[in-house]
């Protein structure tokens, strides 16, 4: 098994390094015909003239190509702005589409080859390394989790965090530098939706692939626990089918792109004007998607949370939770368990929820009234732009995933997800879900608290024989899975039998079944 792990690790790094190096491959040539294919009619003449010095020139570096193309547009915009000809300013960002279309060289006709040499080899190596874990006996052991450089803010973990942060920054704000990666998955995109890949198809594919690979790791590591097995298969299924394949198939059928399990306010653009118009124009199925999404938010969330707790979505369905539970599993112990972290968490996550609600109300006001400003200073377009940048991009993506190796795997879920805040309020005050404890069996080993990704000091409850009833608990069940004495159980029961956290703080006696 050691040889398999070593070979797997070697293959993973070989494929990963090849994957990184593919960004430097390729040649780029801009032509007048390409301008005509990728630029809007109103901007073609201007860009034909401004990029004339690039036409026919062969670039061997995407940095040089992108720099010249952006420089031409920026110079033109600077000129028209200096003359205050605001209607002539080019606000559209054509760089990604033009760079992708201008790519020549080794990727032409060889996308599959480079896909398997990079992503394919890395995936094979990761699976070999993971499958070698079957040699270990079932059950969770710390195995120096708090000392290993990959899992305790060491150089490996910091390097991974830096890579993830860099990837999200480039993906959101500089996608033109990822065109070679997009070309790698072009054949897959053509096979699923009949069209070329976009940066979001690349992201969705990589996201799903990572959940599959690390999900297999979860299945092996937690093979002693049936709940974890079923839960892991659930997040793999929903990510693959609902978040990746179905939206792409909808595009193939000329229907609006929609992740049917994504729920407002997590899907904060759901009620944006262009999304509503897109669904209405799509006819019957588009109206169904509009009604479906609204019903999920207003009806399904409170009902399902009442009967099943927050876990029905956050740990079984959600794509963010799916990545956190698979890719983020090695870092769950890094979540801050201090009281001050809990206080910050409550203020931050509920502030984002209020932000999302206010933004949505303003967006709907604009949609129905045609006016973008209310009270003379609240502009719906500015607010939606601010939310998209700070919450949708920076918080949910760059920080939410990039900080796994630094702050644990549920940074976004704890401190930023508005849907988690919404479901958490329902779970906290109107749900049958709780984690019951048997204090007489607790040996105070601390495994439950250490592995709680939401920063809950579960041991504090277990030592007192108190039920865990918290808005932040996502019902992942890991605390129960790592308990050596079976002290913790995820249960459903009448609301009146739950021990409220206020009662714990005030020292009232526990109400037991």
TrEMBL record:
Keywords: 4Fe-4S, Electron transport, Iron, Iron-sulfur, Membrane, Metal-binding, Transmembrane, Transmembrane helix, Transport
Residue ranges constituting the 4Fe-4S ferredoxin-type domain according to the UniProt record: 433-461, 464-493
Gene3D superfamilies: 3.30.70.20
Entry keyword Nucleotidyltransferase: no
Chain ranges passing through the membrane: 112-134, 155-174, 200-220, 232-253, 285-308, 347-367, 387-406
Signal peptide limits: none
InterPro entries from the UniProt entry: 4Fe4S_Fe-S-bd, 4Fe4S_Fe_S_CS, Electron_Trans/Redox
One Pfam family cited in the UniProt record for this chain: Fer4_10
PANTHER family referenced in this protein's UniProt entry, alphabetically: FERREDOXIN-TYPE PROTEIN NAPH
Protein name: 4Fe-4S ferredoxin-type domain-containing protein
Lineage: Bacteria, Pseudomonadati, Bacteroidota, Cytophagia, Cytophagales
């Amino acid at each position: 098994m050691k040889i398999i792990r070593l070979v797997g690790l070697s293959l993973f790094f070989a494929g990963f390094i090849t994957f990184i190096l593919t960004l430097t491959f390729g040649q780029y040539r801009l032509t007048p015909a390409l301008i005509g294919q990728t630029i809007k009619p109103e901007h073609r003449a201007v860009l034909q003239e401004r990029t004339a010095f690039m036409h026919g020139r062969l670039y061997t570096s995407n940095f040089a190509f992108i720099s010249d193309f952006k420089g031409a547009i920026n110079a033109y915009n600077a000129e028209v702005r200096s003359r205050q000809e605001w209607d002539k300013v080019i606000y559209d960002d054509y760089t990604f589409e033009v760079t992708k279309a201008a790519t020549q060289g080794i990727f032409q006709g060889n996308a599959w080859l480079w896909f398997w040499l990079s992503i394919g080899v890395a995936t094979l190596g990761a699976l070999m390394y993971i499958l070698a874990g079957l040699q270990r006996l079932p059950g969770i052991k710390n195995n120096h989790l708090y000392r290993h450089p990959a899992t305790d803010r060491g150089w490996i973990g910091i390097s991974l965090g830096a890579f993830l942060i860099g990837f999200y920054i480039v993906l959101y704000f500089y996608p033109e530098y990822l065109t070679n990666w997009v070309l790698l998955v072009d054949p897959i995109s053509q096979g699923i939706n009949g069209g070329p890949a976009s940066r979001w198809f690349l992201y969705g594919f990589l996201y799903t692939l990572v959940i599959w690979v690390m999900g297999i790791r979860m299945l092996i590591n937690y093979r002693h626990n049936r709940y974890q097995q079923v839960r892991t298969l659930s997040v793999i299924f929903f990510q693959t089918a609902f978040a990746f394949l179905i939206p792409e198939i909808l595009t193939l059928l000329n229907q609006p792109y929609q992740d049917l399990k994504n729920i407002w306010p997590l899907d904060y653009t759901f009620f944006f004007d262009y999304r509503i118009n897109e669904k209405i124009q799509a006819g019957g199925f588009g109206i169904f998607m509009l009604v479906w999404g609204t019903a999920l938010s207003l009806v399904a969330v409170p009902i399902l949370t009442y009967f099943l707790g927050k876990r029905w979505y956050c740990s079984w369905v959600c794509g963010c939770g799916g990545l956190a539970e698979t890719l983020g599993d090695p870092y769950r112990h890094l979540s801050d368990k201090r009281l001050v972290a809990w206080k910050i968490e409550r203020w931050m996550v509920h502030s984002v929820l209020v932000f999302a609600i206010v933004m949505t109300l303003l967006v709907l006001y604009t949609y129905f009234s045609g006016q973008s400003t209310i009270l003379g200073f609240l502009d719906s377009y500015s607010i939606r732009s601010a939310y998209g940048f700070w919450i949708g991009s920076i918080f949910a993506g760059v920080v939410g995933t990039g900080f796994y190796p630094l702050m644990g795997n549920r940074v976004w879920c704890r401190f930023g997800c508005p849907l988690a805040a919404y479901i958490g309020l329902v779970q906290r005050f109107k749900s049958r879900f709780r984690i019951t404890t048997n204090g007489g069996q607790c040996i105070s080993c601390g495994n439950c608290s250490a592995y709680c990704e939401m920063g809950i000091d579960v041991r504090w409850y277990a030592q007192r024989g108190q039920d865990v009833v918290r808005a932040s608990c996502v019902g992942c069940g890991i605390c129960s899975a790592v308990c050596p004495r079976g002290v913790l159980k995820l249960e459903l029961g009448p609301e009146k039998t739950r021990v409220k956290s206020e009662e714990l703080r005030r020292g009232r006696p526990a109400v037991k079944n």
